[in-house]
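Example 9 (inverse folding). The structure is encoded as follows.
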């Protein structure tokens, strides 16, 4: 027996709630919809509990993504929706994440299985999916996109989220004016997306970088990004993408458009 396939690629979009923790990102203060899980009979619950211990990983054809709406996993959903790749979504709360069959040996989400392959860490998952399903079929194409995925995880993440020693998010570096964001704003002045302009230039790089930028106002709705006008334009443009709205929820995207679109404090510019 395998875990109940309670959420497929055709039924994404709900957003859940959770503790404010970088390892399990969750949004708050946005009136997000609560994910409804089908009710089960006592016998079905017992069967599911038994199957969890035996086979925590569903072996469907194609990618199987383990995550939850209130985690980093929706950024993977976003990319899969962008490229039109069918996949199965499994609620990580319903499986034994410390089984040897679970794709991450650390029990973290997101995690992905594709046949016998197991992948963990959101950046690594994006790289794999872009390589296998997204058309990054040469070393040059992979390098162009992957440098931004690595930058998003290694550099942008700690700018966006200031943590304590236990990994709990305390604040965001976007209250200041980090040099890396100044450079990014300049790059986006010249290009619509990270790898160029025009819809054909949108790539997995934008999913990686855009996700981290858009997570910030989910945590901190009082933040203003107006001091970086080209980053602000970029974020608003990403929020309009149907695939983003499908992964994170149209309601969340709409409310984020209001937050991200706020004008900055005129005192900031000496006016």
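The amino acid assigned to each position is listed next.
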């Amino acid at each position: 027996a395998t875990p109940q396939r309670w959420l497929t690629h055709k039924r994404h979009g709900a957003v859940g709630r959770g503790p404010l923790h970088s390892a399990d990102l969750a949004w708050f203060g946005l009136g997000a919809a609560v994910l409804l899980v089908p009710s089960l009979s006592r016998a079905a619950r017992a069967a599911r509990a038994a199957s969890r211990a035996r086979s925590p990983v569903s072996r469907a054809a194609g990618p199987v993504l383990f995550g939850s709406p209130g985690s980093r996993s929706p950024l993977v959903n976003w990319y899969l929706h962008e490229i039109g790749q069918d996949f199965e979504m499994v609620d990580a709360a319903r499986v034994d994440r410390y089984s040897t069959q679970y794709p991450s040996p650390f029990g973290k989400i997101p995690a992905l299985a594709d046949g016998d392959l197991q992948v963990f860490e959101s950046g690594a998952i994006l790289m794999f999916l872009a390589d296998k399903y997204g058309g990054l079929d040469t070393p040059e194409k992979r390098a162009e996109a992957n440098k931004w995925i690595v930058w998003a995880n290694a550099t942008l993440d700690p700018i966006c989220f200031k943590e304590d020693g236990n990994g709990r998010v305390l604040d965001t570096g976007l209250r200041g004016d980090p040099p890396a964001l100044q450079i990014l704003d300049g790059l986006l002045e010249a290009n619509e997306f990270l790898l160029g302009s025009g819809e054909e230039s949108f790539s997995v790089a934008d999913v990686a970088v855009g996700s981290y930028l858009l997570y910030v106002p989910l945590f901190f709705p009082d933040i203003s990004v107006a001091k970086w006008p080209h980053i602000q334009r970029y974020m608003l443009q990403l929020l309009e993408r149907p695939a983003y709205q499908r992964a994170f929820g149209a309601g969340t995207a709409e409310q984020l458009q209001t937050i991200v679109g706020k004008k900055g404090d005129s005192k900031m510019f000496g006016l």
